[in-house]
């Protein structure tokens, strides 16, 4: 679906307000770190090992199975009553290792019944979901359910027993369906009245040349039976989308004769439904690089009020998880060829009313569709359907295999954006069939991420956005009010969905691509994920494991902080110390991680001469440290140090990101020279040598150990590793070696 950005922007505004206040209150105090590296890098991110069906490497296991649903659908549309009367013949194949005595189906139109659970949870303030206050007789009316075949054995159309509970139907089989390939065929006769605005995903729009019907979630569809939950029966409540089986579709739609009907599938009887002139143009479009008008406004006006009979449009769609369609007398229709990397072709089509026509608006739709599909095919995985149709409807934007519904009001950049987003969904979840009802981020988030690249690619950046400032959005993405990204959309506040399903997971993938793995390794891993799980059902672990196995990193810290938890991120620069207090000899820079999320470090060191050095440190510095000091080979005095100068990390507190010579702390270095020498005690059989190593004091005790010591007070040094302390005399003529709590051994300098 289309993102609702309003919520996100509003949250940024609120957060910035409170954030400034907070910063003002705390600037005078030393910031306390909430970072715990044991939590961030804890072992056992995965709660289960790989299985025979899902490999530990993230690919489908050797015994992976998936059930299948093939559909033969016939529908008749009534323009007057908005009613669809249809039959749904389903052939269900049980490839699982379990026999079945019942099946579960989705009856998603039941969301629009007055007594549905989804209607019950619409707040008084309203929602984009549900039926938008429309009073009508919504919901699937089931006329009959008949079993027609079991295991290729025709049976005498047995009436099947079933129970309907909200948006689900449990269908009982007259005999058990075998595991590993058992097949059952059954026929459902049903009808329903389309809502005008059905959860912003299906509807009826009045235009001056007739109604536009955008028809979806319209036929009883199989629930998924998988190796994770068995039957996936979460009801359709509105926010959470769909999880469906793959199969082939044979569709025929009967509509008034002056309608144009478009569908997920390829039109198989164009010469029965188009006029001779339309057919000629339709065939021209199939081989044209530029948009060809197939049914112009003149065609629409000529057919207006001229519907005496009906026509049946036939379509075919292979290997898809759903099918949707649109029908209207008001449709202008145009199209152009889509070129795919393998040399195959597809067809971009657009249908829209007179109100949406024109080069500023839907007149460019087909160009957008063509570019979007060609680009995603080149970057990630080749488009597999023979047609891609953009429909102007009253939805904000909604995706189905091979067809999308976008707002008839969208124009220019917004129309490009929504078209590209909805067609991006053809990769997630249409090709990669994840469970949208539970994991919105695996389709909306991944899609939003691929959209960020196509915006740059389209027409030399015609509609390119400014790069996201992660210091601004980072604070909003980690607002403590938010649920974790891994939450089901039905389990998050509606206002949070824009951030949690779309922007935050997308921003995470941008960070992973650009800052952690690099584009080459990321793209290979992401492409591998798509290829491995094309037309299959991946779960979150399958994605995480594939990115780690192909990308070659343990990314548990990243998944844990950004996806599984809502952890904040704040790095700060604390202090510097010049080597021997001399900027020409080098500098120690101390940085700190203040919040629970670790990230790699990027910082710019600007010197007084104007020269800038960029330093990059891997995330591993935070594996066992809250604070980290590193040496940089400076040759002159530093003017300033800036952490994350490009604003690519989600730093929720910018106040501590910059160190300046004017205000920042410069610590005094200990001058090591005066402590160096060889020390002895006549009753001890060895001498202790103190040297300098990398500006630190280095202690060598023969046959015992060599180690560095850190200053812990005036003339006082300690080695944490050995537990030894060294208390030097004021005049440096010797030291007391302190062992444990109370044992003191005096040493005197001998040279
Ligand atoms: Zn979407």
UniProtKB/TrEMBL annotation:
<feature type="domain" description="Peptidase M1 membrane alanine aminopeptidase">
    <location>
        <begin position="410"/>
        <end position="562"/>
    </location>
</feature>
<dbReference type="InterPro" id="IPR027268">
    <property type="entry name" value="Peptidase_M4/M1_CTD_sf"/>
</dbReference>
<dbReference type="GO" id="GO:0008237">
    <property type="term" value="F:metallopeptidase activity"/>
</dbReference>
<feature type="signal peptide">
    <location>
        <begin position="1"/>
        <end position="23"/>
    </location>
</feature>
<dbReference type="InterPro" id="IPR014782">
    <property type="entry name" value="Peptidase_M1_dom"/>
</dbReference>
<dbReference type="GO" id="GO:0008270">
    <property type="term" value="F:zinc ion binding"/>
</dbReference>
<dbReference type="Pfam" id="PF01433">
    <property type="entry name" value="Peptidase_M1"/>
</dbReference>
<protein>
    <submittedName>
        <fullName>Peptidase M1</fullName>
    </submittedName>
</protein>
<keyword id="KW-0732">Signal</keyword>
